[in-house]
Write a structure and sequence with these properties.
- By secondary structure, the chain is α+β, with helices and mostly antiparallel strands.
- The chain has seven helices and nine strands; from the N terminus they run E-E-H-E-H-E-H-E-H-E-E-H-E-H-H-E.
- The protein has a five-stranded antiparallel β-sheet. Strands 3-7-6-5 form a four-stranded mixed β-sheet.
- A hairpin with a 5-residue loop joins strand 6 and strand 7.
- The longest helix is centred in the C-terminal third of the chain and has 12 residues.
- It starts with about 40 loop residues before the first strand and ends in a 19-residue tail after the last strand.
Length: about 230
């Protein structure tokens, strides 16, 4: 991530409703950021997402490069392409049962399949004909798209949103057993970035962040205009 956004004034409630054209540049966002955009570290073949677990699960996963049998494949799991949003969620790896921060490199084809087959996690009149249609989609979709405020280095909400992707059923099982390419323990990185932030050296903290760039969302990704993010892979 090349810009921390730490000086951006926040004028949007984290619970506000997105405009009906979320791919349009948002007026308060730096450099004309769309209101909703997937930002991620990725290659031609893989995309990196973040999760945090208790050491009893996170450490074996990082050691073996795959999720252990104790990882509950029948439950919904939420993956986050934004490192700083993961830091907000896990408190820099300090929250209970989230002390081990993992960077999970997964197959892009699987990630894109989940996005194409996802529905929004909440009712949006700009996306759904009515609440009944939303409930039908929610019931059959193997993935949920949720757009949460991106965070700056001090974990304050920014006036634009990044992806959190919930995987359930088939998607959860495929994530754990088919899509995962590598799992890396990045807890030490989280602690180091946090230490630089606490010392007030935001430039040094920003230099340590994983480089995230706009991800070319596949057509049909809920809540975004795929044409707006066709950045070369």
């Amino acid at each position: 991530m090349s810009s921390t956004g730490s000086d951006v004034p926040v004028r949007v409630s984290p619970h506000s409703t997105a405009p009906h054209h979320p791919a349009a540049p948002y007026p308060d966002a730096p450099h004309g950021e769309p209101y909703r955009r997937i930002r991620a570290r990725y290659t031609e073949r893989t995309v990196t997402v973040y999760q945090a677990y208790a050491p009893t699960l996170g450490l074996p996963a990082a050691r073996d490069g795959r999720f252990p049998a104790a990882w509950k494949r029948e439950r919904m799991t939420w993956i986050k392409p934004s490192f700083l949003w993961m830091m907000y969620r896990c408190g820099w790896g300090a929250k209970a049962d989230q002390e081990t921060v993992l960077a999970v490199e997964i197959d892009r084809a699987g990630f894109d399949w989940a996005l194409r087959n996802a529905c929004l996690s909440h009712y949006d009149p700009g996306e759904h004909a009515d609440r009944d249609e939303f409930r039908r989609r929610l019931k059959v979709s193997p993935a949920r798209v949720q757009w949460d405020p991106e965070r700056d280095l001090r974990l304050r909400p920014l006036p634009y949103r990044s992806l959190q992707l919930g995987l359930a059923g088939e998607a959860s099982r495929r994530y754990a057993d088919e899509w995962t390419v590598a799992i890396t323990d990045v807890t030490a990185l989280a602690h180091e970035v946090h230490a630089r932030v606490r010392s007030g050296d935001l430039a040094a903290a920003a230099a340590l962040l994983p480089e995230e760039r706009p991800y070319p969302a596949p057509e049909g990704t809920p809540g975004t205009d795929a044409a707006a993010d066709q950045t070369p892979a």
